[in-house]
Fold this sequence. Notes:
By secondary structure, the protein is of the alpha+beta class. It has three domains: 16-277, Bira Bifunctional Protein, Domain 2 (BirA Bifunctional Protein, domain 2); 292-393, Rossmann fold; 411-490, C-terminal domain of ProRS (Translation Initiation Factor IF3, 2-Layer Sandwich). Helices cover 34% and strands 26% of the residues. The chain contains 14 helices and 22 strands. The protein has helices spanning 16-26, 44-63, 77-80, 84-90, 116-126, 173-193, 239-244, 268-277, 304-325, 338-347, 358-362, 384-408, 417-423, 437-447; strands at 67-68, 74-76, 96-100, 103-111, 135-144, 159-170, 199-202, 214-221, 227-237, 247-249, 255-257, 259-265, 294-298, 329-331, 352-356, 365-370, 376-380, 411-413, 428-433, 450-455, 473-476, 483-490. Strands 1, 5, 6, 7, 8, 9, 12, 18, 19, 20, 21 and 22 form a twelve-stranded mixed sheet that branches. The radius of gyration is 26 Å and the shape is globular. It binds '5'-O-(N-(L-alanyl)-sulfamoyl)adenosine and zinc ion (ZN). Zinc ion is lined by residues 434, 436, 439, 477, 479-480, 482.
Amino acid sequence: MKKNVQQPQLPPKAEFSEWYHELLAAAGILDVRYPVKGLYVWPPFGFGLRNKIYSIIRELLNRDGHEEVLFPLLIPENEFMKEAEHIKGFEDEVYWVTHGGTTPLEMKLALRPTSETAIYPMYKLWVRSHADLPMKLYQVVNTFRYETKHTRPLIRLREITSFKEAHTVNTDWNDAAKQVDRAIEIYQEFYRRLAVPTIVSKRPDWDKFPGADYTLAVDCLMPDGRVLQIGTAHHLADNFAKTFEITYEDINGEQVYAHQTCYGISERSVAATISIHGDDRGLVLPPEVAPVQVVIIPVLFGEPDVNEKVLDSCMSLRDTLVNAHGIRSRIDDSDERPGAKYYRWELQGVPIRIEIGPRDLAQNSAMLVRRDTSEKRAIPIGEVASEVADCMDAMLADMYRAASQELNSRIFDCETLDEVKEKSVHGVARVPWCLDRNCGLEMEDITGIHILGIPAGSQQSTSAGPRPGQGQEHGRCPICGREGIAVLMARTY
Length: 493
Ligand code: A5A
Ligand code: ZN
């Protein structure tokens, strides 16, 4: 990165869209200048952040007994065309490879838009007996979708570079339903580690994954009041098992169809993290994923021998932080003025800044500044390392609390569709719905706002699904006037 250029001013976060795009460039998260629509480049800083975020999801999946695999990018047309619902859902979005050099291929090959049809022919070979189940595999790969809606960096891509998809094989419908619930728990834990509060809901039937029995989704609220779907888990029942002949020998020695689930997240997880926590000065990163966690800035305006001591003190502090505590720390001893350095490191969301100058040195202390609150405190040098560790823990908790309060303050109970329209400018509307498909579609039509689904917390079991008259009444359906239960509606990305 070049230094000492005139610092461009970030638009205020209140102008979210401009702020978001400027921030991606200014902080070095994503370069949007690649000459293909919907494809973007990860520069070093952004890719470092992305990798730290993805190491959390890998850790959580591995800990839960998932294993990582890697399947090919290309899917032969005949496999891709097997599952009728699935094709219908994806056929308009598939990129096809038709030639090898100048020779037309005997069979077209799809660039995976998602990998069910790449993985399941192999599952047919791998799954033999009940002892093989549950099989829980995942991969982190690029996938391609010819999106026709407005493309947006990290949010709606034509090459999703960081598609984490898990595919499980389970014994029966109930076991798969439990797997879907578990997937959602894992995603919620993942997002808690990123201080991103989530809303879980069961998508209406017309918005479920193509080929699934039902879909649970994890959403977050973006600063502009729109909702972003940042993860989904799908119950596939035996729909794919039947088309791909995935059977196993059960405990009675009979061949039965397996039931399956799949669940996925993408770099939308990065978009959510930077959008929800950032401020007018730039990124605010959860310490665990910040590529640089601590920047140490020597304040050098003394005599040369004093400056030398200041630098020594900075270096020894850095060594302690890095070697004894594993904290990713850097010294910025460039020639820029301190103000310019503060600006740049704040823009990049470094959680903690430590300043050491002659005066601090004389008192054997250092100045600690928190990125999220700007709180500034003098700490004795010997206590800096433990203070930094405590401070990073506190930041995660405080960032999560602040974001949760923001989310909760933007969920609005509504009775009429006019209210839904009015409130959804600011966030999520909660309104009764009788669960009738036609009423739901009409509610979306009239308002131009999406039904996210039935909030998961409001039902005993996400898999059984709610029924009106089970004590979850929330008022009357605005279309037909019958008893309804609470459904969430919001403008979405
Ligand atoms: N096989 C399953 C897991 C699947 O493909 N599900 S999905 O279509 O819902 O995608 C999983 C997640 O990827 C979505 O919840 C969304 O967060 C993200 N995603 C989908 N399309 C995307 C796109 N074009 N750009 C970025 N992220 C996308
Ligand atoms: Zn109704």
